[in-house]
Design goal:
- The complex is a heterodimer.
- By secondary structure, chain A is mainly beta.
- Chain A has 8 helices and 30 strands.
- Chain A has helices at residues 4-14, 23-35, 46-57, 67-70, 78-91, 108-114, 150-155, 313-318, and strands at 60-61, 118-119, 135-145, 161-170, 175-183, 199-207, 212-223, 251-254, 264-274, 277-292, 301-305, 322-335, 338-353, 367-381, 384-393, 398-407, 412-421, 442-453, 456-467, 478-489, 496-509, 519-535, 539-552, 557-568, 575-586, 593-596, 606-609, 612-625, 628-641, 652-664.
- Chain A is globular.
- Chain B has one domain: monomeric porin ompg (Porin, Beta Barrel).
- In chain B, a hairpin with a 2-residue loop joins strand 10 (194-206) and strand 11 (209-216).
- The termini of chain B are far apart.
- The chains are: A mainly beta, B mainly beta.
- At the A-B interface, strand 17, strand 18, strand 19 and strand 20 of A face strand 10 of B.
Amino acid sequence: MRSSLLTLLILFAVQTSIARQTTEEKEIIDMIESMAEYLPENYDLTEVTSILEDLRRRPIEINKVTAEDLKQLVFLSPLQISSLLNHIRQNGKILDLLELQTVPGFNERVIRMISPFVTVVERNGAAITKFHDAGHDILLRYGRNLKDSVAGAAKYAGSPERMLLRYRLGGTGAWNAGFTVEKDPGERIFGQNSFLPDFISATVSYRGSGTIRQVVLGDYGLQFGQGLTMWTGFSFGKSPDITTTARKESGLRPYYSVNEYAFLRGLAVKVRVLPGADLTVFGSRRALDASTRANEPGEPIGSILQSGLHRTASELKSRHSLNQMIYGGALQYMRGRFELTAVSFVTIFNREIARGESSYDQFRFTGRRLLNGGVAYGYSLKNASISGEISADESGGTAFIHGALVSLTRQVSIGISYRDYATRYQNFFAQGVAESSSTVNERGLYAGLQLHLGKWSVSAYSDWFTFPWLRYRVDMPSDGYEHFAELSWQPDKVSKISLRIKSETKLQNEQDAIFTAYGEDTERSSYRIESRWQLGRSIGIHNRVDVSRYRKTAKPEYGILIYQDLQWSKPFARLSGNMRIAWFKTASYNSRIYAYENDVLYGSGFGIFSGKGVRSYVNFRYKLFGSTDIYFRWGTSWLFQNREESSEMPNTTSDLKVQLRFQFK
Amino acid sequence: MFVFLLFLFSPIDATAQMSAGGRAAGMGASIAAFHDPWSVNGNPAGTAGQERLYFGVTHTRHFLTADLHTSCIVAVVPIGRQVFGAALERYSFDSYALTSARVSYSRRFGRKISAGVSFSYAEQRIVNYGSTNVPSTSAGIQFAILPELIAGVTIRDLNMNNPKIRPPVFCGLGWRASDKLLLQGELFRDPATGLGFITGIEYLLISVFALRTGIQSKPFSQFAGLGFYQNNLRFDLACSHHPVLGLSPQLSLGYAF
C-alpha cells in the first residue's frame, strides 16, 4: 500500500535499467510492497535500496560469505542464513547457484531472488581499496505541484519546488562517501540568515577486514537486535512474509537518505575485539526540530517533530531548536549458530522535555537525560530458529520480544512471536515490531504461516494485541486483532495472480461522544485481486481491484479502486516508461485506499484515494548518453466529488518531476 | 461473574462447549476435516475408518475459574466397516449444568468418502429455575481429494424441538503435508457469532510427542497443545486463550484396545 517508491526503488536497485522486469525483481517488489505498509508518507528508501544496489554491482562471494553479509539480503530468514552457512561448512565450496536447491529452506523462488546479489566467482580479495575503481553517482531532481492551492502557497516561506542533489562515491568495497542536499516544497532554498540549504547530510565511511571493521564519520544509522533498544531508519513491521518477523540487525551503516529525522550524526567505529566479537562505539550530536506548547523561550519541549518540513513561520521557529547528544556502544558476539548483541547508550538533550497533559501521555519521558540498554539473542538449530530482545530504560521500564521461526517441511513454515512493551518504557530509538507506531504500551502475539506448493503459495498471519494503557483517541485500555491471508498463483516466470484479504478490528472512542467516550470496535478490511502478465517481450501489464470496508458500530461503508498499469521497455532501447490509469470511489475518508505509484528513480509517492475521481500518471526514462539518464514524471488527479475533509483542495491537481542521473568512474 | 458467564453461553452457544478432545482443542478446535475418535463430538464422519476400540476421557477447566468445567467420556466401537460412537458430557458450575448424551454412526463409502450422523439429547438445568431438554442431530461428510488432503463439512446440532434455529456449519480442509505435519483450515458459520475461521497445526516432533497450535477468529482465541503417544495410550494437553476471559486448560486421556 504505502510503498510507492519501495517498489520502484527496489526495481531500480535490482536492475539499473528498467528494461526487463525479471522474476526475481517482481518477487522482491512484492515482498517490499507487502512490508512497506506502515511507512510514513514520502519516505526515502535509499537506505534500503542502496544496499541492494551496491550488492548488485558487487555481489557477495558466496563461498566466503559471513552471516553479516547475508543479513543485508532482507528476504533471507535467519533459518536460511544458518543453513546456507552450515551447508558450505559441511560440503565445501558451492560451484553453481543451482546447488543451493539442496540447502534446507532454499527453493527455486529463493534462489531466483538471491541470484543477482551473490556470485560463485572468487575475486581473490585483491586491492579492494583502489581509488581509481571508485564510481561516482550524481542525482539531481526537480519536482513541483502545478496547481497549488493559493491559500496554501501564501503561507509558506519558500517556493513550491522540491529540489534534491545527491552525490555518492562507492564501488571500491572499502571507501564510500556521499552527500545530500534537499529542499521540500514550501521551504526556502537557503535557510534563514544563512547560505546553507535546508537539509544537508554528508558521510564518509571505511570498511576493513582487519581489527578496524568499520569507521563512519558524518551521518550514520544503527540497527541492533530486534529493534527494541536501538534501530534507526527503515524497519519492517508485521508482514505476510513471516521471515521478516525476526529482524536481522545490520549494525552500523552510513546514511545517504533524505529523511530528516531518523539518523545519527557524528563518529562511529566498529572494531574486532576478540574472534567473533565486534565492538561498535558511537557518538552523535545533532539538532532536532521541536515545539513547545506556548512557543515561549525557556519553556520545556512539548514534542519532537519528525516531518523535516520547514515551511511556515512556526515550523521555521521549531527548526533545530533542540540539541540531542548520544553516546554508547554495542557488542556483537557470534559463534556458530549463536549470536548475542548487547547495546547501551545515553541520550542527552540541551533542554528539558516535558510530557503532554493528556492522560495517555502520562508515562512519556520527561527530563534531559535517558539511559537505555538491551540484550538481543539469536540461535538456530536444524529447522528452527529463535530470536529475541530484552530492553530497559533507567527508570525501570522494560520491553521484550521473543520469537521462533520453524520450517516444518520444505513447503510449510511458521513464525510465532510474543511482544510486551511496558507502558512506562521510554526510548527515543526503539522500533520494535508493533501494531502502534511506537514501541510502548503494547502486548501482542503474532502467528504466521507460509505454504509454497509449486506454482501456488499461501501466506497468512494473525496478530492479537492489547494496549494496557490509554492511547490517542482511545480513552481506555483496549485491544484488537488483525488477520491477513493471501493466495497467489504463478503459472510462469512473468505472470502472477493473487488474492488477498486483510481485516483489522480495534477499539476506538465512539464517534460523537459528548462527555465520556465509550469504546467502539472499529473494523477496517480490504479485499484485493491483482494480476501481472507480459505481452510479448516489451510490454508488461499489471492491474488491481481493491475494495475497502470500514465499519464502526453502524452500517459498513465501502470504497473501490481499480487501476491498470502498462510498462514498456526493450532491452538496449533508450526510452522506457510506465503509466497508470486509476478510478476510485469511496464513501468517505474512512474507507480510503492506499496504492503505491511508480516514480522516478529514488522518488517517492503513493496515493491515498478517497472521494470519487480518476488518477493517472506517466513515467519516462531516457538514456541520454553513456551512463546518463533523464527521468520524467507527470501525474494528474481529477476529483469529481471532494472528500469532506479537504474541501479546500482543487478538483484537478498535477505534479511534475524531472530528474537527471549521471554515473561515471 | 457466573451470571456473566451464563449470558455468554446461552443455550445456542452451549453446543459449542462440546469437547472434541484435547487433540482438536490444541489445534483451534477445528472439527470438519478432523479424523479422530473424538469426532463423535465433532464431525461424526471423522470416526469412520477407526479400526480399534477406543475409550477416552477429557476434562476442561474454563477460564481457570474454580468450578466451571466440562467433563466428557467417549467410546468408539468399530464393527466391520461401520463405526459406532457414544459420548457423555457435563458442562457445569454450582448452580448450572448442561448434560448431554450422544450416539454416533459413521462409515466409509469407497476409499474417498466417509459420512456420519449423531444424535444427542441435552438437558440444561439451572438451580431454582428448573430445566429444559433439547434433542438434536448432527451430520457430516468427509472427502479425500487426495490421499493426504481431506475436505469435510458438518452441520452441528440441529435443534429438533425448533428446527428453525439455524445450526452452526463447519467446512474445512485437512492437509497432511508430511508424516510429521498436519494442517487444518476451517470456515464456520455460527448464528451467534457469524462467519469465522480456524487454523490449526500439529507437528510430530518425535514419534511419541506432538506439538500443536491453532487460532480461532470468533472470538479471537489462541490455542496450544501437546500430545504424548505411548503404545496404545494417548495423552493430550491443550490450552485455549479467550481475549477477555483468559486461559482454559484441557486434559485428555485415551486408550485404543
